[in-house]
Amino acid sequence: MAPVTRSQFVKVAEKAKNAVPVRRVGELAFSQYTAGESLTVWQHGVWMSIDLTGVSSPVATAKALARAALKRL
Question: How many Å apart are CA 3 and CA 53, to the nearest integer?
Answer without folding.
Answer: 25
